[in-house]
# Entry
Amino acid sequence: MSERARRGRPGHDQQSVLRVAVELFNRQGYDATSMGDLARELGLTKSAIYHHVPSKEHLLESAVDEALDALTASLDEVGATTGLDAGERLRAAVRGSVVVLVDHLPAVTLLLRVRGNTPTEQAALQRRREIDHRLAEMVREAAEDGAIRGDLEPLLTSRLLFGMVNSMTEWLRSDPDVQAVADAVTTLAFDGLARR
Amino acid sequence: MSERARRGRPGHDQQSVLRVAVELFNRQGYDATSMGDLARELGLTKSAIYHHVPSKEHLLESAVDEALDALTASLDEVGATTGLDAGERLRAAVRGSVVVLVDHLPAVTLLLRVRGNTPTEQAALQRRREIDHRLAEMVREAAEDGAIRGDLEPLLTSRLLFGMVNSMTEWLRSDPDVQAVADAVTTLAFDGLARR
# Structure
């Protein structure tokens, strides 16, 4: 990024521009949003917007990287925590993904709508697949350890777990009780609905 | 619809046009797809496409109604089945939603991407909310009946259940083993991952 782009203009820093852009992308669709739309939303001229951001794709990349980096860091943290067995690690990983979703709701929402139409989007999908496989590996270890049932295919289980978590972007509003939501997800996923 | 639109042209009937349109909407986004794009995909001129369909919105409406009608019919059928207790009804409803998703995968995929930008989309979201509430009512009845745990909020549970089911549109390919997928979803949701 050029010195001029980094410096920005009074009233808008990189973070606030990104925040407004992600909100706009989520509201009206990334493809349907032009840099002109974003400039209007920020109260800037169409040429002034380029003092803040090099391109629309750069904004998308920053947002999806924010979400993906947070998810990766959350899984890394679970992996680095000592004293957890494989079942506890899996449960902590699912709980951590709920916390990341709540903490980075706009970025995660945008990430989940990416369809792979550009190299940036394809790279994001590739990172999502890697994260799915990391969770699948945790499912496999927990099953081998006897902590969870062994009759479900690990990658399918991983996708259904993330599917349940990710679906919250559809209805979650800002400032939810993150612990209550994480409790509900882990209770449903690990303990099941049926009375024991 | 006019007589001319109903009659269509040789080589394309209403159903095949709808099928191609939904596939195209899912691939490149509804908003980003023009009637010209659809004509090209069908090998028609831009004016000939209007012999087949009155508008792009009409195609969207037909597709989301297909998905919503199938979901509604599935819940109606569960409600009309005699000899099921409330817990069995809920399990059958979740299983039925998996079957509908598999049987109507392109239409359900399109439905789930609708954001409410037009009256047609708002009507679809409203119908989705009504279906969420019907499932929530089944959750409530199953909890009152003692068939499922009572410590999870019914609407939250309903949303997480549909969230898990709906997330399958992200990775399911055509011709899956629908019974195996439905088994995995109901096992995870009702019995939970943890060993009993």
In short: DSSP finds nine helices and no strands in chain B.
